[in-house]
Amino acid sequence: MAKVFAIANQKGGVGKTTTTVNLAAALAAQGARVLLVDLDPQGNATMGSGIEKRSLETTVYQLLLGLHQLPSVRVRSTAGNYDVLPANRELAGAELDLVDLDHRETRLKAALKPFASEYDFVLIDCPPALSLLTLNGLTAAHGVIIPMQCEYYALEGLSDLVNTIKQVHRNLNGDLEIIGLLRVMFDPRSTLANQVSSQLEAHFGDKVFKTLVPRNIRLAEAPSYGLPGVTYDRSSKGALAYTEFAKEMLARFSTPTPTPTPAAEDLTT
What we know:
With 269 residues, this protein is an alpha/beta fold. Helix content is 42%, strand content 17%.
């Protein structure tokens, strides 16, 4: 049965989509069966997976409305070797369309459930706002991965997100928990970054992932080529960091332990 994780942060521009796409590709390179769910109407995770969002006939929008089932919506990312439930601007209309539907917060969970056995990991890229789309992602998930920068405003937003997760746990999804905080765009030369990092470790303990993802231009360049960063430049510091993060996830949630592929071996060289 798949482990379902929402990658969420109510603050924008914190590397959430970059984390989703690169974790998906890095897990797939290690032999895991991965499904990426793009719940952001901007469709950046779709584009970053090498899928042209403008030409899509069916997206996660139709899935949420019950017009299609998962097999007729998913698209294979040849760039990352994982499946995608893609999104485009059409998904922006889901906010209004879902309001009058029954079980509006659990539509994604119900759509994923019959096909969960086909995957080891399902990664949900949530939009940077508390909306019905985000609630669907959190309700469908077993846990939340929170990418965050080590800066003051990130700490302010983190408390709001933790409160949101607690509310969803209490009212909609009793299985939901914070899996961990991933420090991204990390600059070890910054005194503030190191101070915030230490504060996170002191407060959250083992909920802070060991992996540190550095600021890396190659990760930023990769989406313009329709490639995950771990595929675009496997030897870059950013790609190596996400590869280590995937290994950290597999060590914690090995179900079952996948066999590394040749591509995964290349990532460690």
